[in-house]
């Protein structure tokens, strides 16, 4: 009796209660759990006797996170009704003694059953949807898998639409997302390793790779960077992306994010590694290259000739998005002699009466377009696109009529904005939009020489940039002719026989 009082006094200290071991004494163990999470109004404690034996038991779960139907049919019914009917002849039960092996192997009709030794371990499981089962005389507490995930249906990703290809996208449920990867084919080498990230609020994270394709050194590097994540909470995969990238000062993202399972699986088949976090539909792919940001899964679903031409058009659109306004500023302000005479006269005629230099004119229109684009994203979906289009037309026409900007400037900005929409990866599009303003200032100070100087600075940065040890502008550096078959162009599938050497370290020849 005195020992029980001492044990109970220990539970009054909240600092050490979460580190306490369970004792097997029902009243003390239940009090330990109550002291830790009993103040939460959504945590349910249900005490009962097991099947007329007089053995005290209790289940603890979170209302809304746990599946009540599963608890009622496969836990409560098994322990209260079926337990006495089927097992009352067992001599150990008649004597009032019960073991956890007997409960796990002969009573509970539920697939996921584990044990907890510490209060802290038990609480973290309860708060993520599992159900705890305390039984008098059983020292360890049983944790029953009853999580009821709230997830939406698999829909086509709104950020990466395709004309031809699968219409499935990832959801916020990690188990659904890993299942989508498994559904791509019978591949026993697809490995999925689980981690927990977040110090105060823990979340599940998995890395996926194909054992006979991925470089073991790359897999180990990804795991090491995941283990080093030290932050209170990881609400979205963007946090992981920022914490594991090589150079956080670079404007280029060194981790690709996507909602498409087909894009992730294709990357895995190239020897890359995917990172998926619970609670977000965006998966991460490492390592990546600049060319991946300009490629679309649709490039491989269509025949090679249209894909070849569309990919070239996409690269050309990216160059226009990056250098369009800066080239206009440099030619108009410094190098009028390089413009054909008739075109130069036409441009000068449209600029007559405009009070600002070309750089200010371009900044006014570019900033207005960026504000309209951002505002269109934040507005409700039914009116957002219409507002962006109408706003752009109204502001552009009003600016020309007021003599603030020239009509040719409106054309240049409109062409630049449309070209930026051709970049399939949203994060890459943001990078080009940021660097566009830097190129404009270089052009305003040095003219065409400034544009060339900016391009050289950009190339020098890209040459040094790496993603998990892989050069960011591969296959330009290091140069390998066979990799150019799937770079700026897309050759027929029969001609792409080799994997990229920078990524795939094992087998260089594709199967088949």
Automatic annotation (TrEMBL):
The lineage of its organism: Bacteria, Bacillati, Bacillota, Bacilli, Bacillales. It holds the Pfam family GerA. The keyword Repeat does not apply. The keyword Transmembrane applies. Keywords: Membrane, Transmembrane, Transmembrane helix. Belongs to the GerABKA family. The chain crosses the membrane at residues 273-295, 315-334, 404-423, 435-458. One of its GO terms (cellular component) is membrane. It comes from Paenibacillus lautus. Residues 148-167 are annotated as: Disordered. GO terms for biological process: spore germination. This is Spore germination protein.
